[in-house]
Amino acid sequence: MDDLDQDQLVSYAGAIGASSIGGMLAARDLVDRRGRLTVAAELLFDGRPQREFPNALVRVLRYGADERGVGRSMSLEDGEDVRVEGSLPRQIMVASDTIDQMMPKWRQLGPAGLFEARTRIPRDAWLEGLVNAVVHRSYSMMGDHIRFEIFPNRVEITSPGRFPGLVNPDKPLEIKRSARNPRIARVCADLGITRELGEGILRIFTEMRRRGLVDPIYTQSSSTVTLTLLASDALPAEVVSRLTGSALAILDALRLAGQPLGTGQLAELAGVTRMTATRALAALEQEGIVTWRGTSKRDPRATWSLGQL
């Protein structure tokens, strides 16, 4: 018990309304019937659980090319290999700050309708992937750690352990909720890190689609699961080449809104005239990218929404 971080224990006990640290640990099954700490308790509240679990850490790496390379062709950038240790909540917090600094950024249209520095891959998507990796990895597999690898064209998050049961990684949206580490998941939910609703994968898909990027890819080896988030537009290149800059701006505005909007609203968000927006939306509709919903051509409540692409 003395090895645990007392500040973290006191803070968490207060968060769940426990009258004592011992009562808190018992309430969350973080001690067994003999009063001995569980592995989950050590991972969650030890200031440095790596003394007993040396690979219970997150490693963040940034590469300068789309391929890792080997030897002299290795593309790992100097000083961009960071190992994040400490308790699991601390790992998530420090790793996310580190990734924020390392992620390449572009000038893109933001939610407020202004151009700003934004990561091509949405933060909510990669953060959910990071949290899932930390909370649900196999901590019984001692020989490997979580790797968060940043490439110019993608992010790869690799976690020790396979999906539970007979799961098809080619259909990730059909994967049912199954917490490998239920005690860790419960504490992280109490801390607001997760929600325990089985929505993590769906949220990653939703955020990528909202940004107009291709769907996440899950692959599984004999001992790991890798999530790949590609910074690639979901629209085929030949379709993009047929669209005007105004049409792409309208499409970005509709993606960012995440809800159906009228022609006037889209024109204002994209910074174009209503007539230009009308022509752009017609082109997008012809490509099957957007869908119009209304009762007549002069329906003031008519809206446009994203199609299946």
Features:
about 300 residues; alpha+beta; Heat Shock Protein 90; Arc Repressor Mutant, subunit A; 11 helices; 10 strands; about 35% helix
Strand order of the largest sheet: 2-1-5-6-8-7
Distance separating the two termini? 54 Å
Strand content: 15-25%
Q: Helix content range of the residues, please?
A: 25-40%
Q: Mean pLDDT, rounded to whole units?
A: 87
Per CATH, the class of the largest domain reads Alpha Beta
Q: Which fold name is given in CATH as the topology of the largest domain?
A: Heat Shock Protein 90
Number of domains: 2
* Approximate shape: elongated
H/E order of the elements? HHHEEHEEHEEHHEEHHHHEE
Oligomer: single chain
Biggest sheet record? 6 strands, mixed
Number of strands: 10
Summing up helix and strand content along with how strands pair, one would put the structural category as: alpha+beta
Integer-rounded radius of gyration: 23 Å
Low-pLDDT residue spans = none
At CATH level 2, the architecture of the largest domain is 2-Layer Sandwich
Number of helices: 11
